[in-house]
Model the fold of this input.
Amino acid sequence: MRKKLVVLSGAGISAESGIKTFRDSDGLWENHRIEEVASPEGFAKNPHLVLDFYNLRRRQLKEVSPNRAHHILHELEQNFDVRIITQNVDDLHERAGSTNVLHLHGELKKARPVHNKNKIIPWEDDLNVGDLDESGDQLRPHIVWFGESVPEMENAIQITSTADIFLVIGTSMQVYPAAALVNYIPSHCEIYVIDPGLSNSYTKSENFFKMSATEGMERLKDVLGF
Done:
């Protein structure tokens, strides 16, 4: 039986493809306060602003491609049972070929009715005020905003609890509940961390690669003997 490699990925892996990380050093996201564009209250107050914000993100996604780190994760499926838990809302893992990806915070290329979180609709282009489902309900981005529950968290915990190898890559480990997944890693599990800015409090020093996602994945590939 192949070992199960569970990956928790964050904005750092997508940054190398040209997607901006979640927030800049000034605490703003594309010159907006996070609460304005990533909360139910912000959407209720100014739906045009919020929809335009995610339309820009969706358009940008069409202009970028998976990078080498994404592709190595796909290649590792040849030797490992790879399960990716990502905080990212882009589809770069899937476009690189990864077959088991769980999106904790939703997906840019999906929408849902405002009053029905379980009705998920594929959505490739701009989403505007007046775009409704067949029941007349306004559509919103399928994104988990601040103050909302994380529906896939229980699934992520279950996946984490089965890991033989656990990889943290490109995440600040400051966004909860995603960061709490480390509490569910089995005691026998080998843990690796790839991040140029993260301080190591998760694993032994030789398993902590303080480098970019691509450099770190090349190193990990060698360590795993692939």
User: Anything to note?
Assistant: Helices lie at 11-15, 34-37, 40-45, 47-61, 68-75, 92-95, 153-160, 213-223. The chain has two domains: 1-19+66-105+150-226, 21-63+108-143. The radius of gyration is 18 Å. The domain at 1-19+66-105+150-226 is CATH 3.40.50.1220 (Rossmann fold).
